[in-house]
Amino acid sequence: MPERGVPIAAPGSSDSLARHYPISIKGVVEVGEKLVLLRNGRDEWELPGGKLEEHEGPAECLEREIFEELNLKVRIDSLLDVWVYDILNSVKVFIVTYGTQPLDVNPRIRISNEHSEVGVFGYDEIAGLNMPSGYKNSIALFSKRRNECGS
User: Fold this and answer.
1) Which residues, in sequence order, are CB contacts of 97 under 8 Å at separation 6+?
2) 91-102 vs 23-28, strand pairing mode
3) How many domains does one find in the chain?
């Protein structure tokens, strides 16, 4: 056991050598039993959300990003999945996905200029979309929890 006041390891000894990835917080958004997805510049469908800013927590980030991208206010339900996305074999992003619930019963979705298109899809359409498998997995987990809760 180390003596009181003696560090176990030098400060930052291993952290400074670790790889650092940008963090992106994403949300599965369901409106009227359809999933809301955005088409990005790589022609992929993705979950709404974005980069975690220094001053905010994951829930704050996701609420802000979904409002900015879709003009939609949501409540964050639960953590679904965490994974690393290797974008075009050049940038790795640490992805955290949450389930969400829209706060408005009849939302008016408006797309921001960050994406080329917004789409709403049934669960049965997800498998055929050009979308990273990590997002598809998050949607499957959301669907499973939704069905278990009887929503």
Assistant:
1) 25, 26, 27, 28, 47, 49, 79, 80, 81, 82, 134, 135, 138
2) parallel
3) 1
Q: What is the pLDDT of residues 65-83, one digit of tens each?
A: 999 999 999 999 999 999 9
Query: pTM of the full predicted structure?
Result: 0.83
Q: How many residues does the chain have?
A: 151
CATH number of the domain enclosing 47: 3.90.79.10
Tell me the HSE value of 51 on the side-chain side, using a 13 A CA sphere: 7
pLDDT band of residue 149 (cuts 50, 70, 90) is confident
What would the DSSP string read from start to end of 31-66? ETTEEEEEE-TTS-EE-SEEEPPTT--HHHHHHHHH
Residues paired with residue 46 on neighbouring β-strands, in sequence order? 38
